Amino acid sequence: MRPQVVFAHGIRTSATMWRAQIEHLDALGIDSTAVDLPGHGRRMDETFTLEGAFETIDRAVTDAATRGPVLLVAHSMGGLVSIEYVGRETKPPVDAFIAAGCTSIPRGVGLRLYRALSRGFDRLPRRGQWLTDLVLDRTLPPETRADFGAGGYAYDAQDVALRSLSVLDLMAALRRIDVPTWFVNGQWDQLRLNERLFTSLVPHAQLIVVPRTSHLITAMRPRVFNAVIDVALSTMAERGSASE
After folding, report:
1. What CA–CA distance (Å, rounded) separates 165 from 171?
2. Which of 70, 82, 120, 226 has the most CB atoms lying inside 10 A of its own CB?
3. For a pLDDT cut of 90, what percent of the chain falls above it?
């Protein structure tokens, strides 16, 4: 059975953020699925809920698992939701896990500040899209510049999604993760705050920090991130061979 890769995107963006990774896997002959979470991408007319996000990821993972071992790759908000998912007491069929830009506990002052900033941007002309475009133009390479916004920006889902994250019990979930795991952060990622704690709680976890890289690591350093995926796939193959 061939390995399968499932991608879960971050807040405001959509499945389109994974274009560079999907093309890389296509070239290797590896099947992948990138989901749109509720309220995002092709599902922008829906309301974001944690239950809907869990169901979306589980549906994609369960389907992929019928064809081969599954690598779940998730970023930012999708990463936080996926930590809770992979760390369920009833183990989902995930064989390896890459969590990017999501090593911060979404509670307290930090979350309140993030929500306040987001609401402030919403009050700007065009909801601050001009500033988003300026930052992306200056930080992302031309090959991936359009990927984050290709599926539209889910501004309406942002605050409800951020508020929902506060109920996640990440500390308990992290302790239950028992598959090879890679936490991947950019050096300048604002969500690096608890990266050492997260890594220490997962027995088979490794922390990778990419120099001179922002929170948008998958698009800012696509080849580096693809190399991490290659390592995860090789690890899955080695574990599969050892169990035969």
Report:
1. 13
2. 82
3. 80
pLDDT at 137 over 70: yes
pLDDT, average across residues 105-112: 78
**Per-residue pLDDT at 165:** 92
Tell me the HSE value of 97 on the side-chain side, using a 13 A CA sphere: 31
Whether pLDDT at 244 is above 60: no
Whole-angstrom Cα distance, residue 21 to residue 204?
A: 23
DSSP 202: S
Exposed (0-12), middle (13-18) or buried (19+): which is 74, by Cβ within 10 Å? buried
Structure tokens, 225: 């991130």
Quick one: 65 exposed, middle or buried, by C-beta within 10 A (0-12, 13-18, 19+)? Answer: middle
Q: Between 77 and 126, whose confidence is greater?
A: 77
pLDDT at 135 over 80: yes
Contact of 43 with 16, CB cutoff 8 Å: no
Q: Containing H/E element for 206?
A: strand 205-210
CA distances from 178 to 78, 83, 146, 195, 232 (A): 19, 11, 36, 18, 14
**Which residues, in sequence order, are CB contacts of 123 under 8 Å at separation 6+?**
none
Query: How many whole angstroms separate alpha carbon 104 and alpha carbon 110?
Result: 9
Amino acid at site 81: V
Q: Which domains does the chain have, with CATH numbers?
A: 4-243 (3.40.50.1820)
Q: What is the mean pLDDT of residues 183-197?
A: 96
